[in-house]
Amino acid sequence: MAIGIVLNMFFLSVLYYVVFVMVRQWTGGYHADSYLKCNITFAGITFFTLGMTKLSDMSEMYSLTIHGLMLVFALLSVWKYTPVENPNKPLTKEQKKRNHKVALIAIIILEALSCGLYVFFPKVSALIAYTLFSIAVLILISKNRKGGNEYE
User: Fold this and answer.
1) Nearest-angstrom CA–CA distance, 74 and 136
2) Model confidence pLDDT, tens digit, residues 90-106
């Protein structure tokens, strides 16, 4: 929330946090080795997401093509690699199936919402796209760190 206040984006920071936490609980992804690293990583991702949203609003560089590419990247990452298990919280086969299904449904709903908001609320639309993109990157980082396999 502090980053949102500094960037004059408090409402968007709350929305970012809700989307990030909601999706990450079903997808899993990168987990830092310590509480400090976790906080630093989360602050960096938050700053990136809110900062890119602000830059997108201030410049002409953000386009429907970039928006679409981020959404496709997020959907493919979630479809192919989730859920990413945390070694401290192993999942049963049933939990993996449920988490994968719920993550896909959540991503599809959020992406449809993001597309629907693109014309009338471009900042909110971009924020959702950047948030989903960030989650997808964390999924791939975790997969590559562990040498993880695709979703079965």
Assistant:
1) 5
2) 889 999 999 999 999 99
